[in-house]
Amino acid sequence: MLVRDLMHKGLITCPPDAKLGEVTQLLVRNRIHAVVVADGQGEPVGVLSDSDLLAGEWLATDPESFETMRTLTAGELMTTPVTTIEADAPANEAAQRLRNEHLSRFVVAEDGRAVGVIAVSDFVRALAHAPTRPRTVAEVMSRAIVVALPDTRVPELARGMSERRSRSVVVLDRRGRALGVVTGHDLLEADAEVTAEQLMHPPITIAPTATLRAAADSMLEHEVHRLVVADPEESDAVPLGLISTHDIVAEMAEPGSPWVS
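Structure (tokenized):
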């Protein structure tokens, strides 16, 4: 299987002078995690992700710095250079690079032109229809998770995600029971005074004994990028961990995986 078999064709772009508010609307409207910043000729010059936005705007600690962030453009906050991969590259090579280089996506190139994007979520979608080793959620899940109480406000949520390089926060009550999940996307258009309880989505849970196929199917069904791992016999207990699309891609890239020839 090649990168071209899994990629999303075409690019969702914004110009370098687009304001951050415009970028957030583009992300939310298209339900994506990043946009490609393109010059006047349509050539990619950078990538701006929701993580880049979280590391900036919501971390402003006073009105002046917040106002400065609001005037920044995509060109000023984007990540450069654009990381690319050839359309004819093997899919397992892309999975290995995503893991090894700690990336979420590549711009796909063909004959010197950008023709699409391949992201972690594309591998998860493929995994749901591919033969895999009988690995379980418990074997690949992250046991260290970022948590917050229901009254935690947006700036603190963003700071926690940014400092711990996490794309989500699990909201717990004071007994340690999972109440919901807040993701980076949820913060993009939220007011600074909004709390985790107001933003959170009900947690989608999965048992630690479930297969990776089951985890991938659940992510696709619920259109989420992570699942809370919980013991089905102790629903009120502290979560055991979190499994994300990145965890599954890392497993696909491991030696011995059917994706790695």
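Residues 65 and 161 are 20 Å apart (CA to CA). The domain at 3-127 is CATH 3.10.580.10 (CBS-domain).
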